[in-house]
Amino acid sequence: MNPQILKEICEVRMPFGKYKETILADLPISYLEWFMRNGGFPQGKLGMQLATIYEIKLNGLMDLLKPLRR
Questions:
Q1: What is the pTM of this model?
Q2: InterPro entries from the xrefs (predicted)?
Q3: Which residues pair with 13 in a beta bridge?
Q4: At 1, is the pLDDT very low, low, confident or very high (cuts 50, 70, 90)?
Q5: What's the first-to-final CA gap in the chain, in angstroms?
Q6: Rounded to an integer, what is the distance from CA 47 to the centroid of its chain?
Q7: What are the Cα distances from residue 67, in Å, to 38, 52, 61?
Q8: Spatial contact of 41 and 47, defined as CB atoms under 8 Å apart
């Protein structure tokens, strides 16, 4: 796991949709599950970031992000 990815998901904001401007790490798991049910995450870097936060939340690993949160 690249630590830069973890840092980014604590800083980058969702660029579109219902949760536009929400920090990726703060997106509700239900929204991430919606992506999974509806064709998966977008392509590219944003999709990778969303998939990463989804796995973190799904596996109860949010404590990993505490040192990176502002």
A1: 0.92
A2: QSregVF_b
A3: 23
A4: low
A5: 21
A6: 9
A7: 32, 17, 13
A8: yes
